[in-house]
Amino acid sequence: MINDLKKDGETRMQKSLESLEQGFAKVRTGRAHPSMLNSVMVPYYGSDVPLNQVASVGLDDSRTLLVQPFEKNMVSAVDKAIRESDLGLNPISADVIRVPLPALTEETRRDMQKLARSEAENAKVAIRNIRRDVLGDIKDLLKEKEISEDDERRAGDDIQKLTDKYVAEVDKRLADKEAELMQV
């Protein structure tokens, strides 16, 4: 019973790390990366779909993304969707769409760092909330006399160690992202 709760907690903490990585993908560094456009939604036959379902996204060079819509009539819709996204990008359209990334200024880098720290803090809060939930479930088992107080204490220590491990992993990934942001 306790082991199931621990496994569930660890699975949920792992998902928090995956969510953090998705959040970090939105934080723009100086280099182009196809995942930057993952959040862009394009209108396609009456419904919004992710960009990668209507176009292939690749690299033209280290500072330029190359977007090739699967259908020629989608070029203007994809262009408009990229412009209207909150990424601050200005695509250039022809048969394919080139998305040059402007060089990051020191101020922009600082703003991106703040955004990365915010994403990391959200992940830490999520991990701590998972810890709280699992500890609450363990306390419920203790109240129902399904486990002993020693089991409860040991499980609490294990959950805390797990939480510390994942919070340290968030800090490590944040440090990596900040170093990547500050590279010129």
Automatic annotation (TrEMBL):
Transmembrane segments: none annotated. CDD domains: RRF (cd00520). Its main location: cytoplasm. Coiled coil: none annotated. One of its GO terms (biological process) is cytoplasmic translational termination. The keyword Hydrolase does not apply. It is found in: Cytoplasm. InterPro entries: Ribosome_recyc_fac (IPR002661), Ribosome_recyc_fac_dom (IPR023584), RRF_sf (IPR036191). Signal peptide: none annotated. GO terms for molecular function: ribosomal large subunit binding. One of its GO terms (cellular component) is cytosol. Belongs to the RRF family. Responsible for the release of ribosomes from messenger RNA at the termination of protein biosynthesis. May increase the efficiency of translation by recycling ribosomes from one round of translation to another. This is Ribosome-recycling factor. The gene is frr.
